[in-house]
């Protein structure tokens, strides 16, 4: 699986959009971009995934650049409950395991 | 909503004890996984199962065994607990079908071995 690079930490004001970047310059054609988050002392939570088109669900939007070397997770109206570590993962659809890097610790401030 | 439950949130055991961690999912998922999570080491796969009575070793299976007698239940067994098995244990499940195989996690069991 390709390696990902994320900033170690970010801050965002409550009610604003939180934009979390991820670099995956070695991604191959059959690898998807997945995002998970982990709130303190809880299990990871699946957020969204995509291949090359932008994706949106009830939790977030995922923007993938045309060359697929980077992506951005957008939480449109961040709340205090969105404070968590966010993990960007690149994996093939057939891969069995998830490999979490260090992630981005996002803090939402009141 | 997908629900993955684990038998305990916190567990304290003594060295040499046999430890059972239970995981149950209610989404009829084919795949189930056991990971451990340690500071600085991220998530590491111990074992996974893609069907009843089927299992595959992950990256760190030593000291662990698993059991899957029913589709909804996946058990992790520490045959003789040791202090280096103190960790957060996470169970996950997913469909096997490509395009639907995102993994859903339980709340975790924080195991301390004294």
Topology, please?
The complex is a heterodimer of chains A (110) and B (114).
Chain A: E1 9-13, E2 18-23, E3 31-38, E4 45-50, E5 55-56, E6 61-64, E7 70-75, E8 84-92, E9 104-109
Parallel strand pairs in A: 1-9
Antiparallel strand pairs in A: 2-7, 3-4, 3-8, 5-6, 6-7, 8-9
Chain B: E1 4-6, E2 10-13, E3 19-25, E4 31-38, E5 42-51, E6 54-57, E7 64-70, E8 73-78, E9 87-94, E10 104-105, E11 109-113
Parallel strand pairs in B: 2-11
Antiparallel strand pairs in B: 1-3, 3-8, 4-5, 4-9, 5-6, 7-8, 9-10, 9-11
Précis, in short:
With 110 residues, chain A is mainly β. Chain A is 0% helix and 47% strand.
Q: Helical proportion of chain A? A: under 10%
Strand order of the largest sheet of chain A: 1-9-8-3-4
Give the overall silhouette of chain A.
Answer: globular
**Rg of chain B, please?**
13 Å
Order of helices and strands of chain A: EEEEEEEEE
Report the mean per-residue pLDDT of chain A as an integer.
Answer: 92
Number of helices of chain A: 0
Overview of this structure, please?
The complex is a heterodimer of chains A (110) and B (114). Chain A has no helices and nine strands. In chain A, strand 3 and strand 4 form a beta hairpin. The N and C termini of chain A lie far apart (37 Å). The mean pLDDT of chain A is 92. Chain B is an all-beta fold. Chain B has no helices and eleven strands. In chain B, a hairpin with a 3-residue loop joins strand 4 and strand 5. Chain B is globular, with a radius of gyration of 13 Å. Chain B starts with a strand and ends with a strand. Chains A and B meet through strand 4 of A and strand 4, strand 5, strand 9 and strand 10 of B.
